[in-house]
Design goal:
CATH topology of the largest domain: Cytosolic phospholipase A2 catalytic domain
Largest sheet: 8 strands, mixed
Structural class: alpha/beta
CATH superfamily of the largest domain: Cytosolic phospholipase A2 catalytic domain
Radius of gyration: 22 Å
Number of domains: 2
Strand content: 15-25%
Distance between the termini: 11 Å
Order of helices and strands: EHEHHHEEHEEHEHHEHEEEHHEEEEE
């Protein structure tokens, strides 16, 4: 697939190849609210707009991986009808991937290299506390890792690391999308409900059962406790998403109106699809305008993902949107905040050698030739 605009007469000479804008999607985390991504993809698909690169986190990584296979939005939606979050959550229990997303494994190919559209998903190294960008090799464990919500799904062991949900560090990976050097980034922010009441009856039940059972856990108290933890996660998610959007703003930010839909409401698929469609349709005129006349940006000319890392917090930094930069020993470093710059300026040696290895401020990842949905390779644009 290649991004472009529908129709229109061509002013090019016979046999000449029309220049086209490159479009990248950044799909954010939000658990069940991320089902709205399918509605957004459906509108882009309907309008004949294809995508050159997808960056996803958490549910955004799962939906992005499904779309990268070449599946149509209606096929992804059909698979999503099987997604279910159990009504009861036992104390200390971790759910199985197959019980939450029973139909996904059969839709995904074995590796990133088999995808029709280049994809990167984010995860977090649980032991090191650093963001990990997964872009090659085994696909299914990478998707499981980006969705491995701590305390809900078990961490995923991959390449010697224990990985958890990408939303822990980067809930809306716009910075990763920009690193693919697109002309336009369209980001979909699903976030979390801004306010939600926890019924008073649940509080009273919790208090009663706690006195009755002492420290012995039981499913009823666990359910209420999980409601509290979920709401706390929703608040954190909403704040983090707003911060990321401000730091690495996309060309277009789509925000489906999902009301009080919670992170666990996988049964509200149709509502999420409608919200995604409405939000994408509202943004469509601006998307088409930008695709007709994309902003001029310098490009390397290579099909690659150029990642610049803040040496202090190890976050991916877009040089055009970096909050600060500093040249040290002839190397230019970019920083996500003045605070990271100050830390680096005081003790550069502390951050330039990690686990005995020299820190690399930039890494270039070849994306390779594109594959069509039929599985044949296409030349790079």
């Amino acid at each position: 697939m290649s991004a472009g605009v529908r129709g229109g007469p061509s002013a090019l000479a016979p046999g000449a190849r029309a220049p086209r804008a490159r479009l990248a999607l950044a799909l954010g985390g939000g658990a069940a609210r991320g089902l709205a991504h399918i509605g957004v993809i459906e509108v882009l698909e309907r309008e004949g707009l294809a995508v050159d690169f997808i960056a996803g986190s958490s549910m955004g990584g799962l939906i992005g991986a499904s779309s990268s296979t070449g599946l149509k939005a209606r096929e992804i939606a059909e698979a999503a009808r099987s997604f279910r979050f159990p009504r009861w959550f036992l104390p200390g229990g971790l759910m199985r991937w197959d019980s939450l997303f029973p139909s996904i494994a059969r839709l995904l190919p074995g590796t990133f290299e088999e995808l029709a559209t280049p994809l990167a998903v984010t995860a977090v190294d649980l032991e090191e506390g650093t963001q990990v960008i997964l872009h090659s090799g085994p696909l299914r464990p990478a998707v499981q890792a980006t969705c491995a919500v701590p305390g809900v799904l078990p961490p995923v062991r991959l390449d010697g690391r224990w990985l958890v949900d990408g939303g822990v560090a980067n809930v809306l990976p716009m910075d990763v999308a920009w690193m693919a050097e697109p002309d336009i980034v369209v980001a979909v922010r699903v976030g979390a409900p801004r306010s939600r009441r926890i019924p008073q009856l649940q509080w009273r039940l919790t208090s009663f059962l706690s006195r009755l059972g002492g420290i012995v856990p039981n499913p009823a108290t666990a359910k209420v406790s999980f409601e509290i933890v979920t709401r706390a996660a929703e608040i954190l998610l909403e704040r983090q998403t707003a911060l990321v959007a401000a730091m690495a703003g996309p060309e277009i930010l789509i925000e489906p109106e999902l009301g009080d839909m919670g992170l666990r409401d996988l049964n509200r698929l149709e509502e999420a699809l409608r919200a995604g469609r409405r939000a994408a349709e509202a943004a469509l005129p601006e998307i088409l305008r930008l695709l007709e006349s994309p902003p001029r940006r310098p490009r390397s000319g290579e099909r690659s993902l150029s990642l610049y890392f803040d040496p202090v917090c190890a976050m991916v930094v877009n040089p055009a949107r970096a909050r600060a930069n500093l040249t040290h020993d002839g190397v230019l470093y970019y920083f996500c905040s003045p605070n990271c710059l100050d830390c680096f300026a005081r003790e550069p040696g502390r951050y330039l050698r990690v686990a005995g290895l020299a820190f690399a401020p930039k890494r270039t990842i070849p994306l390779g030739p594109r594959r069509s949905s039929a599985g044949t390779k296409e030349a790079a644009p």
